[in-house]
């Protein structure tokens, strides 16, 4: 008897976009019932390869086999018919529809032209119970957390009886708790016989759940290893072609004067009729990285919005360098010296249909260097963009002229970080600055943030990544249910103690203003 055929085998896949070869002769083999990680830097070609498998792109060369038989996947409907499903990095959900409506969309059960939701609801409930995917079928997508949206996407695949499940950067937008739950769900799915392709650049997750791992670098296949036989260090070297520093190298902070003072700040919740930030006070000093840590949904988003001007506070005040900016516009705050790496890169970070060079100059286009008599000097914009692209290694198909929408999520993030770090600022508000970045890029961004700190800037870091919180911050403030419940020194605390504060199990009963 011959060996069992692969659940999916992609042979010699090549995909080009104009002069850019995104996938260069890649062969990938997925066994039945395994979790197979696809690892690579931002822009290495991982999402492109999976988009070929899901029928979003036609390969220029190569073939796809399912269970040993040659298949032709022209569009996502072909993929679905073959039992292939995909959870995209940026979810494909209709915000004003309910969870249930999103799950059945495109696969509706009708009788005489009427939707039969009761059968669908029953099936969704059964799948939800079986795989531990707790969702509220009647909640609107716009009202639920990102983790819940992701569960909706997974249920969408299971509802269609998909056997091959593609997860594209599934943890990029999740909290540590949600990541733990997702890992558990993925193991359950594999135990049930599902075959999983898991695109990521988070090495801890690969070590935890994957059976095998294939590595891509700059569009080329580097190799496949058994995860049990390798280490994080070996995988990172395969991925970026060099050794990577996992620890942030920094000298002790030298805090100076107060740059930002937050006084008795209260901010309304975006989704509920209650306060998301409750009477919060703290100070961010020059030469120091102050980090707000917490489980997602405890007021950090609204706090960031209030400081950067995206939302008006209910009460309290914001003082920047002794000046009250509570009611100042975003432009005035920017001119006063605030840079902002936003939480949602698509909504608040980029104009997706603008070119990369236009996005990179958004902060500065009104400066004399970039405009004359009200007309943009595009030659200067191009020069400036090329300089930032080179310095921050932002990769895209057409360089400065690429549209932001066409770039990978990680390279979109790098573009925002480049623009904000290059802007003259006294306060950098960095919210999830390394979300969706690979280890090489994270190492670089962290060192740039530390440089800014050492040059006297005040850094307010809001992060859900515990490793980042512990290694990058000089001082940690923990938020729980809209309040600051603890102030910790990263050198003297543990991840476990931090977790207790984040979960609300521990708090400083007498907390001085930070």
Task: Kindly list the characteristics that best describe this protein.
17 helices, six-stranded mixed β-sheet, 3 domains, Rossmann fold, 514 residues, alpha/beta, 24 strands
Structure in words:
With 514 residues, this protein is of the alpha/beta class. The protein has three domains: 8-240, Rossmann fold; 247-337 and 426-514, 3-Layer(aba) Sandwich (Rossmann fold), CATH 3.40.50; 345-423, no CATH class. The radius of gyration is 24 Å and the shape is globular.
Poorly predicted ranges: 510-514
Sheet with most strands: strand arrangement: 6-9-10-3-11-12
Tertiary shape: globular
Distance, first to last CA: 69 Å
Largest sheet: 6 strands, mixed
CATH architecture of the largest domain: 3-Layer(aba) Sandwich
Radius of gyration: 24 Å
Helix count, DSSP H or I runs of 4 or more residues: 17
Count of individual domains: 3
Strands, helices and their partners?
Blueprint: E1 8-17, E2 20-30, E3 35-40, H1 46-53, E4 61-66, E5 69-71, H2 76-81, E6 84-87, H3 99-104, E7 110-111, E8 114-115, H4 117-131, H5 146-159, E9 164-168, H6 176-191, E10 195-200, H7 203-209, E11 212-217, E12 220-226, H8 232-240, E13 258-268, E14 275-285, E15 288-293, H9 300-308, E16 315-320, E17 323-324, H10 330-335, E18 338-341, H11 345-349, H12 356-360, E19 371-372, E20 375-376, H13 378-392, H14 409-422, E21 427-431, H15 439-454, E22 458-463, H16 466-472, E23 475-480, E24 483-488, H17 495-502
Parallel strand pairs: 3-10, 3-11, 6-9, 9-10, 15-22, 15-23, 18-21, 21-22
Antiparallel strand pairs: 1-2, 1-4, 4-5, 7-8, 11-12, 13-14, 13-16, 16-17, 19-20, 23-24
Helix pairs in contact: 13-14
